[in-house]
Amino acid sequence: MPLRTGFRFPIWSVLLAGIVIGYLIGIGGAPSARVWSDVTEEPRREAFKAGGVINEPVLREISATLKRIESRVEKIEKNTGTLASSKSK
User: Fold this and answer.
1) For 34-47, how does the pLDDT look when each residue is reduced to its tens digit (9 = 90+)?
2) Cα separation of 51 and 57, whole Å?
3) Alpha carbons 74 and 83: distance in angstroms, whole number
4) How many beta carbons lie within 10 A of that of residue 54, not counting itself?
5) The pTM is what?
6) How far is CA 55 from CA 25, 74, 80, 87, in A?
């Protein structure tokens, strides 16, 4: 019977020890999975407002412009009407 000169581990125990050591190193080196954040509300963009909210100021501006145009046309009609009547006399 030959004499053993050293102690030999079975191969499965060496593999198991390597897996356990790798797992423990991985747990210690892994960053935390928690993330901290604050909920912030961004201002609403004009493009995402409802149609009536966007249209109202535009329609008011158009109405004011049309009233100015109407008053100018009325003045022109009065001036041309008095000039036309004075020329025909």
Assistant:
1) 667 777 887 766 66
2) 11
3) 14
4) 13
5) 0.36
6) 63, 28, 37, 47
